[in-house]
Amino acid sequence: MTSRHTVLKDLPCGIDAEIMGIDGGAGIQARLRALGLCEGKKVQKLCNVRMGGPVIIMIDRAQVAIGKRMAEKIIVRPLDAK
User: 54 to each of 45, 49, 66, how far by Cα in Å?
Assistant: First the structure.
């Protein structure tokens, strides 16, 4: 996997990544931090729900569903495949 940054929405399913930042105002940053999503955290994108549904991720051993527009605001760095 490359070390280039991407947004969580565009990360392929099943890939681990590190959150590098959140591109949004204080409101969206607070909402995502309340879900445990902040810089330095490791996440795994599990899947996209079709037809405009949420993005399902694994963070801190918990599955979390976030909207696609929120997932577009989360900048991640894909981690190397093992």
Answer: 11, 6, 5
Kind plus residue range of the DSSP H or E element containing 64: strand 62-66
Domain 6-78: homologous superfamily in CATH: Ferrous iron transport protein A (FeoA) (2.30.30.90)
pTM of the model: 0.85
38-47 pLDDT per residue, tens: 999 999 999 9
Query: Residues 42, 18: contact at Cβ < 8 Å?
Result: yes
DSSP state at residue 24: S
What is the spatial distance between Cα 45 and Cα 27, in angstroms, rounded to a whole number? 23
